[in-house]
Amino acid sequence: MLTDKVIITCALNGVLTDPAQHPVPYTPEAMAASTKQAYDAGAAVVHIHFREQAMGRFPSWDPELAQEIVDAIRQAAPGIIVNLTTGVVGPDISGPVACLERVRPETAAMNAGSLNYLKTRSDGAWAWPPMLFDNPVDKIERFLSVMAANNIVPECECFDIGIVRSLSMLRAAGLLKPPYTVSLVQGVASGMPARKDLLPILIDELPAGAHWQSIVIGRSEVWPIHRLTAELGGHLRTGVEDTFYKPDGQKVSGNGALIECMAQMAREVGREPASCEEARKILLPNA
């Protein structure tokens, strides 16, 4: 049955990690090749960030680059569902909007609330200057309007339990309308912790009938939560944006090995990874 299928998303590259130190693809060729490895291992969705091409250290909102990357990905992995980031600090969303309108991905991240994005080092110093990842309701409404106009399904990223609970209010206010999906982001230092005992509470607070997945940031702690997610009916995401480590603690050289581990874990709990066609029927009912 289709309801027994689990959709696996590859978080291809992220935005913060240094490609000089970690296996993070950022050129069109490398992103396409890494997507192909994940696709062959069982991923039906790829979540991507665009980066400047000189060193790959900073975000890019160049729609020409976005189109080149997505074209390369779709050629390498026919049928894969493309999910674009839209994360941007401040009220100016023109960069993400230009990429959404140019590429027209099937889905896109929609950050569903604000978070003080913090982390300290062992000596108490800030790992980076404290920042507010601001996503007020008017900004959310603008993103949702663009997504609706371009037939893009929102993926509501929730960094704390209050954001999860606010989804029902966004629905009641008429801003958030099906279809959409929900991502429970666990493991960010100033957000929800990566704890198995928290997951059932988060699921309890979801809007009725929502498709959901766990995004878990970290090392060894991510895999027990992924297993519980699969057992409780959620979908799965991994990739070098989220972790560099397999369940046995070995560091990976790319996304393919992480997706292989996730697909194996899904099968161990009795769920088969969805094909791209099956994932489209689940996530994109109006396509």
Can you walk me through this structure?
The protein has 287 residues and is α/β, with parallel strands linked by helices. It is 35% helix and 17% strand. The protein has helices at residues 28-41, 63-76, 94-103, 137-149, 161-172, 199-204, 222-231, 255-268, 276-283; strands spanning 5-6, 8-11, 45-48, 81-84, 107-111, 115-117, 131-133, 153-158, 181-186, 211-216, 235-238, 272-273. The protein is globular and about 45 Å long.
Q: In terms of topology, how is this protein built?
A:
Blueprint: E1 5-6, E2 8-11, H1 28-41, E3 45-48, H2 63-76, E4 81-84, H3 94-103, E5 107-111, E6 115-117, E7 131-133, H4 137-149, E8 153-158, H5 161-172, E9 181-186, H6 199-204, E10 211-216, H7 222-231, E11 235-238, H8 255-268, E12 272-273, H9 276-283
Parallel strand pairs: 1-12, 2-3, 2-11, 3-4, 4-5, 5-8, 8-9, 9-10, 10-11
Antiparallel strand pairs: 6-7
